[in-house]
Specification:
With 170 residues, the chain is an alpha/beta fold. α3 packs parallel to α4. The protein is elongated and about 60 Å long. 32% of the residues lie in helices and 31% in strands.
Length: 170
């Protein structure tokens, strides 16, 4: 645990899943956040006892809820967010050739924007801080989606990661 000048928020009385070497889970744990950094992780009593943290701008008692590290989604197709449910009942080749690719080929830049926005909202609300965007993009919609994904990435976390894989099947 490290001490900081003053915490913006202290979350306490939670199960805290850590990313330390032992993958420890703290039963009555706390996290103090200063700016965009975690300043302290430890038992609630210890974090709340640090002189700066009782004066935090916001202190939240999580009443036994679970605090997890941000998730990593390694396979995202932002363009297909609006296509959910249109091809759940078919084999892969039918899904690709008969449903998804025809669907995508008719999307406008506005459709692309809406699909990417909806996907980003879902990622943020589900705790994803890092994503790999995979897609075979057509040139007409690629830049619209890319710019929006960058905006969403910055909204997810200051230290989030964005990677785009662009290619075509032979």
């Amino acid at each position: 645990m490290t001490e900081a000048a003053s915490a913006d928020v202290v979350l306490h009385n939670a199960y805290v899943v850590t990313m330390d070497g032992a993958l420890m889970v703290l039963r009555n744990g706390a996290i103090a956040v200063v700016g965009d950094r975690i300043a302290a992780v430890g038992p609630s009593a210890d974090v709340l006892a640090v002189a700066a943290f009782p004066r935090a701008a916001q202190t939240l008692d999580l009443a036994g809820r679970i605090l997890l590290p941000g998730f990593v989604n390694t396979h995202v197709h932002t363009l297909q967010q609006l296509a959910r449910g249109i091809a759940d009942d078919v084999d892969l080749l039918t899904w690709l050739h008969g449903r998804i690719w025809p669907y995508e080929s008719h999307m406008t830049k506005e459709d692309s924007y809406a699909s990417t926005l909806l996907c980003g909202i879902e990622l943020i609300r589900s705790g994803v801080k890092t994503m790999l965007k995979s897609h075979m993009d057509s040139e007409c919609c690629f830049y619209t989606r890319y710019c929006l994904v960058v905006q969403l990435q910055l909204s997810m976390a200051r230290r989030s990661v964005l990677s785009c894989a662009v290619g075509f099947l032979a």
